[in-house]
Amino acid sequence: MYVNGDIGDFTGTFGTVSNTLGDMGGIAAGMAGTGGASTNDLLNGSIVDVHATRIATILAGQVTSTTVTAANAPSLISNVTAHVIGADLNGNGVWDFVNDPNSPTLGFDLSSADQIIDGLVLGLKGRVNLGVTPLALITVPA
Fold it and tell me: Which positions ≥6 away from 63 have C-beta within 8 Å?
């Protein structure tokens, strides 16, 4: 797929649930399982051969800023190119999130309620092939 422009809203709030609520959107592969809870991430959809000017975020399923888990990794991300991958809402060149105050982990943790602010790429380790370094790439075991 070739898009002469952006995929996602580079000014929106992180999420893929609804663009009418001002969600960032981006590319969201299908998520396996009833209700979207996958225990086998290889059952999630793939994102292949996508070319755009900018892509706000890449993952699987419908998420909000606090509901992203390892189960939201697409089974494959391959041959995806853009000038920019990952919406940087405040333009500081750093991937921003708010650390969950109840989490003992400093730094981003998929198993906590950390709040994502900027766009990211979530993929399976060894199964991500991008044409540019994204603002944030988070990989989880396949």
Answer: 15, 16, 17, 28, 72
Virtual torsion, Cα 53, 54, 59, 61, nearest 10 deg: -90
Prediction pTM value: 0.91
When the pLDDT of each residue in the chain is averaged and rounded to a whole number, the result is: 90
3-state secondary structure of 70: helix
Residue burial 68-84, b: 16+ Cβ < 10 Å; e: rest:
beebbbbbbbeebebeb
Q: What is the largest CA-CA distance in the chain?
A: 43
Q: What is the three-class DSSP state of 3?
A: coil
The answer to the question of residue 120 being in a domain is yes
Residue numbers of the domain that contains 77: 6-140
Place of tokens 């790439």: 137
Task: Please identify which residue in the block is written with the tokens 């609804």.
Answer: 18
Are the C-beta atoms of residues 8 and 55 closer than 8 Å to each other?
yes
Mean pLDDT of 68-79: 95
Is 63 inside a domain boundary?
yes
> What are the tokens at 19?
């663009």
